[in-house]
Amino acid sequence: MSNEISFTLTNTDNSCFTMALQGILNTQNTAAFIRKAEKEIATRRPSTLTIDLSDIEAIDDYGISTLACIKQRILAAGGEFKLANIPDSIKEIFVINSFDKLTAPLAAPAKTPDVFVQLGTATLATIKKSAFALMFLGDTIVSILRLFISPRSLRIDDTISNMRRVGVDALPIVALISFLLGLIMAFMSSVQLKQFGANIYVASLVGLSMTRELSPIMTAIIVAGRSASAFAAEIGTMKISEEIDALFTMGIDPHQFLVLPRIIASVLMVPLLTLFSALFAILGGLTVGITMLGLTVDGYITQTTHTLELFDVFWGFFKGGIFALFISWIGCLKGFQVKEGAADVGRATTSAVVTSIFMIIVVDSVMVVILRYW
User: Fold this and answer.
1) How many CA atoms lie within 13 A of 275 on its CB side?
2) Which residue spans within the chain are E strands per DSSP?
3) Residue 141 CB coordination number (10 Å)
4) What SS3 class is residue 298?
5) pLDDT the model gives residue 195
6) Distance CA 217, CA 222 (A)
7) Which one, of 140, 165, 155, lies nearest residue 227 by Cα?
8) Which of 104, 171, 242, 266 makes an SS bond possible with 324, Cβ 3.0 to 4.6 Å?
């Protein structure tokens, strides 16, 4: 038995061709065969191709794949493919390799939508998300009003647990970052102020800037990274596991059960974290003042207290509460927007952090303008 394959291509009727195979179609010769066959097919462009296997001696899995490839080419060009005179000795090989499934028509490549279709799709998705956010905001407001009517509906244990997670657990990282930020600000400002003998004003710069602006912003960003992402992940996981649907079925309001404890915990703890942040930032500036600028502890603290007013402390405290409200609400909103799959939970978590930080900057800008013209 020779280990060669050959074929004869004859024109039977107009563009209908018959390819008669002779020999063995196996691993050793399929590459050469497919090159020759595709060249003939590209030249003749048959509308119907019939493979005559009456003189085929043997065929293996590679040979089956080769015939499947030829059929795909014919079908993709809109033609018709047939097998004829299959010997009984090789019929079983076609059945075992599921030849009909291997030669399913090639799927047409997906057409990339143009820019207007993409713009329209993105616009509709944005409108849908905005409508959901407005509905969610309304449900949250209604839940808060119900809480005033019936304070006992608040889940105290969950609220305290979230207060610990948002506030107490975040205190070490807030303290460390604030201390280092105050230290850096004091060091960089001292480089310039030292030239004019105004080292004492380092205390004023650090105390005022951290208390009014940087402490609320830095604390809110840290909380957004820790808590907003956690809220979105927790609620999103409950959403895909249908636990929220179960709450609806049991007649429990998910907003009172899940959202309010997180919002209240954040609003109570973030302002306190903001005060601690300002305190540790001042300590960082004090460290630089004592070690590098020759200032005394009493002098530094006295200058800080003379610079800061009660309004500055209250303003930073108030901004921390506003930021906390947006952070917690956005984290819960993104969790409720999860539809299906773990990947959607990951996207919601990322979106919660990014959106929270964006809103922190926007709200802070608005409040700065309000303070400027107040």
Assistant:
1) 11
2) 5-13, 16-25, 48-59, 80-84
3) 11
4) helix
5) 77
6) 9
7) 165
8) 266
Domain ranges of the chain: 5-102, 134-373
The DSSP call for residue 269 is H
Contact predicate 202/186, CB 8 Å:
yes
Fold category of 5-102 in CATH = Transcription Regulator spoIIAA (3.30.750)
Collect contacts of 290-295 with beta carbons under 8 A, ≥24 apart.
292/187, 292/190, 293/190, 293/194, 293/199, 293/202, 294/199, 295/199, 295/200, 295/202, 295/203
Our CA angle for 153, 156, 158, nearest 5°, is: 110
Q: Name all contacts of 94-98 with Cβ < 8 Å and 24+ positions apart.
A: 94/64, 97/61, 97/64, 97/65
Spatial CB neighbours of 181, under 8 Å, sequence gap ≥ 6: 210, 214, 218, 281, 284
Mark out the alpha helices in 45-114 (DSSP H runs).
61-76, 88-96, 99-102
